[in-house]
Amino acid sequence: xxxxxxxxxxxxxxxxxxxxxxxxxxxxxxxxxxxxxxxxxxxxxxxxxxxxxxxxxxxxxxxxxxxxxxxxxxxxxxxxxxxxxxxxxxxxxxxxxxxxxxxxxxxxxxxxxxxxxxxxxxxxxxxxxxxxxxxxxxxxxxxxxxxxxxxxxxxxxxxxxxxxxxxxxxxxxxxxxxxxxxxxxxxxxxxxxxxxxxxxxxxxxxxxxxxxxxxxxxxxxxxxxxxxxxxxxxxxxxxxxxxxxxxxxxxxxxxxxxxxxxxxxxxxxxxxxxxxxxxxxxxxxxxxxxxxxxxxxxxxxxxxxxxxxxxxxxxxxxxxxxxxxxxxxxxxxxxxxxxxxxxxxxxxxxxxxxxxxxxx
Length: 360
Prior knowledge:
Elements: E1 6-10, H1 15-27, E2 30-37, H2 50-64, E3 68-72, H3 74-90, H4 97-116, E4 121-123, E5 129-133, E6 136-140, H5 158-161, E7 164-165, H6 173-182, H7 200-208, E8 217-220, E9 226-230, E10 258-263, E11 268-272, E12 279-280, E13 283-291, E14 302-305, E15 313-320, E16 323-328, E17 332-333, E18 340-345, E19 348-359
């Protein structure tokens, strides 16, 4: 790294971004903090209070003696991330708004704003590593494999990585909490983000129901026998077990029920006690593909991850009729349309795409 480079640290008020700022400051870099606001509190009540997060970030910036700038992308977030999220839910798929946010906001508008301030790099608190191979950047799994966040980062490209720094690439989460304690910044006790920050788990259905076409319907088994009623398909995800509300169904075994399908036209939620219905092996069609470095090789074995923290499973990658497919060699539990399949070559994240169709 060039110590003459000026770096802006994206500071969210959380532990990881705060420690990233501490590390870079301690290394002697010329840094500033930048707090990004993506949601207006008066849009709806949420669990994530931007004022409190800003105050946490400001306290750390003041302690480090650095300036904390602010930028508001609420309008962009609404139009490019949240609206897409709602549209996907209405169509019956399960989107990942964190990936949309990285692609559309954090590493587009936010990064461009950093560069417009005549700074050279953006640093974030992601657990990921950037390397150089054959004169190109690669995205790699970090030292802390448990906290690895490359799943959310497969949407970045060479230009973005040329302006990106991951200070946590070679330390563990326990190291991060130790640094926080040693600086007495009291962030080590702060809860980590729960995904869609401005909502939080508690208020998720309350908020989303304001934007979703919520139509109650029937819960059926594989033979279309009615077992109960659902409150709206968007409340449920493929593979879900809890909260279905049909326990103790008459003349059925005591085995748990799982969501195995959503029939959008009929507005049916399909459930089954056969867990094998959730296992899938075969071809998966992807769209919105991004390859970070080069196109993958056909007939070479790669590994795919279908959810953050999920197992790496062997696949081959196929291009056919201008579309990309994965051939999944072992069974995966409930791969879900709208979620991302992220591809790896050993410890290198090579890219990925959004699951469009399971090719039964």
